[in-house]
Amino acid sequence: MPGDGGRGPAAVPGADGPAVQALPPAEVFVALGSSPRGLALGTARTRRERFGPNELPHARRRGAWRRLLAQFTDLFAVVLLIASAITFLAYGLEHPHDVGTLQLAAAILGVVVLNAAIGFGQEYSAERTAESLRAMVPHTSRVLRDGERVEVPARDLVPGDVVALEAGDAVSADCRLVETHEVTVNNAALTGESDPVGRSGEPVAARLVLEARNCVFMGTDVVTGSAKAVVFATGAATEFGRIFRLAAAAPRQRTPLQLQVASMARRVAGAALAIGAALFAVRLPTGQGLVSSFVFALGVMVALVPEGLPATLSVSLAIGVRRMARRHALIKQLLAVETLGSTTVVCTDKTGTLTRAEMTVAQVWAGGVAHTVSGVGYAPVGTVSDPEAVLAVLRAAALCCNARLVPPSGREGWRVLGDTTEGALLVAAAKAGLDVEAEEAAAPRVAEYPFDSVRKLMSTVNSDPEGGGYRAFVKGAPQELLARCDTADWRGERLPLTDELRAAVIAANDELASRGLRVLGVAWRPVTDRRPAQYDVESGLSLLGLVGMLDPPRPEVSEAVEACGRAGIRIVMVTGDHPLTAEAVARLVGIVRRPAPTVITGAGLDALDAPALDKLLTESGELLLCRVSPEHKMRVVTALQGRGEVVAVTGDGANDAPALKHADIGVAMGVSGTDVAREAAVMVLLDDSFASIATAVRLGRSVYQNIRKFLIYLFSHNIAELVPILAATFAGFPLVPISAVQILAIDLGSDVLPALALGAEPPEPDVMDRPPRSRRERLFSGAVVGRILFLGGIQALGVCAVFFWHIHASGIPYADFTKDNPVYREAITMVQAGIVVSQFFNALAVRTEQQSVIRIGLLSNPWLLAAGCVSLGLMAAISYLPALQAVFNTAPLDPSDWAVLAGFGVLLLGAEETRKGWVRRRVARNPEGSTR
User: Fold this and answer.
1) pLDDT (average), residues 581-601
2) Could you give the residue ranges of the DSSP H alpha helices within 515-656?
3) Is 349 a catalytic residue?
4) At residue 932, does pLDDT exceed 50?
5) Sequence-separated (6 or more) residues with CB below 8 Å from residue 837
6) Quick one: pLDDT band at residue 4, thresholds 50, 70, 90?
7) Cα separation of 224 and 453, whole Å?
8) Considering 161, 174, 349, 675, which one is annotated as catalytic?
9) What predicted TM-score, i.e. pTM, was given to this entire model?
10) Which tens digits make up the pLDDT trace of 305-321?
């Protein structure tokens, strides 16, 4: 049996004998120990135990110790390790030894260990998060078990399973086709050839199974048609599994934001080196020893390097991804989190995204009369007015369906397995008194021509139980169907489809569509051949009637549409439905508010050249694109991006994959979407609702804002650390206002936890009241740098004031100060405590960009308050515990000292609140020209 390029046996029943591709369909079942009814449940369980799960082996992970050691190979870690080693060496060369040098070396090493621990923990957490998020959208397959069509997880497929495949399905195992209807597949994952290739169920003599036209393979997808196939290889035994075993894992790509932050960190590190060298050059002529001056400069340089910035960034992005997953938006790439914040246009489907995708037939139009159908949902409970008049329409529609109604089981009620539109037709047929299973048994299907986005039709050929020949049943878009009809079945008669009658049909279609109903046309014709050509089936038809289906809007969508409007995000509806239906739904959810929106059909788009399309997209405010194909959607997305828009696109079909990949944010439906669409998208809506897109945009904006918040928080306190050292140096004071060990204590105790808490800051109340962020906007914009200088400058002035106030109040000349002087120890303790206290208030100040922090609530981020309290507690320990006093050369502070420092903190918070008030007033005066 072929399972390894045709060269080795697959672990399947009946492995001896001819290759599976060479067998006729009937013998395939025997060779694989199966039957046309599929496997028995007991047999499936036994084979599941024998063959294991149908999944590829997990990539081998590095051991925990190797991953931990890898944290020490980062550029910053290497620099810090070298710095620590040099400091240890300097301590060894000093005579007498200075314990402060030893403490500095140990502190630097402590920074490296802490960063390694954070990096290791984040990598481990990211792996666990990725696994849990992947499990939220399980791949399923439709199989026959004991003759019943059921959905099972793809990992539970076993050799011998009979699988039902339709357009848009991802193939989950290697299968031998036994029944096909116009099937083409995309084998790009295996062969690199992206053009769809045809498939049939006839035996072939191919030597290699990969060359067999009657086989489909794991990792590929069905482009058109439908089929039944028998699984012959699963998991690692598949062709895809063979390639997977040979291929090396590709390195994980870093996102542009991560690269931008890393580049910025390197520049800051370079500046720190320059400042350290300058301080060394300034201190050396003052009589300080060579070693002590070098150790001091080295400590300052190390302290100013933003060592924990990359880890804090990753944590913030991971928090955003988890938050979005809780709101039904699964983000597959961190890059999408960044891009969401700058989305300017959302091209959205209608069915299932704006509406519930719970189709219910509300009207059946036949013989010039509209008949009402009662009842909602998929339970076949309700009535049809004058059911005899619509039996022919509903019988033809039901026989032209692949969906299946599933009765209630457990906690689940009636549901549809397959297309929801077809499910609605089956329910309506049951309400009219038709036994669909009996009808299918009496008129079995012999051929099928699946729906595609070009024809907008689906056709089947069924045996005629009355005439002994065959009947073709066709359903699809009324305009497409009407163009292929010559006659109409009209109240028991077959009438020529005159212009007058055609106009009546069009008027009925428009009437149904204007009420927000999705309309399908149904027609039929007799055929003589068992498998006639598609053209013969879909021409010369006789119209039976129209079916109008109601798909109510989701109740949460109107609020989400309004939020997008406030946020400056344009919504363009892109749908395959009738223009009147699209406009009715768009008005219900608030996308259309004006009397006359711009409505363009696919045919209208075809008539527009590139400049005309660009003009349409520029000048049309409320735009509805109707009766469009995936190719039209792709063209619109490309044109919008050419105008500089950041475009999010929704899609659920296999043909939507190109547009989903090309969009800045491809959004697939997690419930109704095909496997191919979900694979192409970077975001999957677990509930299919448009409201989840709006929520994801809100959270995406919040993530970017939070990154800026902790950057402002981190870099503003660096100014407060650096300025006192520069001031003391140029003022001629022989000692430093804050030692390198104290600076490292601030980095370890005051920076990490509050920065992480800022990364988890909830979205600001007005985050969706601002225009989208420009994709060209840099992380360190002028506004961000200005805020860093503003807040850092206030902190620096405060700590410089308390230091020199203590020094001058003592009346001791500068030259007489020593490290052990109680006044000096109290002064440097005030500087360290002043930075810690001001950082507590700074963390509160940076929580919002424009809104007052009092308005959002001082207690609304308890993690930040807890982190601030930990920082203050650590500072108190450094001030009062004798063991830590010896390490940091600090002294106990009086309550009056803490009161002064708290006053400076309140002053900083008040100054920032005043600045925000000025910004809000400026925005109110000039909302278009203001910047954030």
Assistant:
1) 90
2) 534-537, 557-566, 579-589, 602-606, 610-619, 630-642
3) yes
4) no
5) 872, 875, 898, 901, 902, 904, 905
6) very low
7) 10
8) 349
9) 0.70
10) 666 666 667 677 777 77
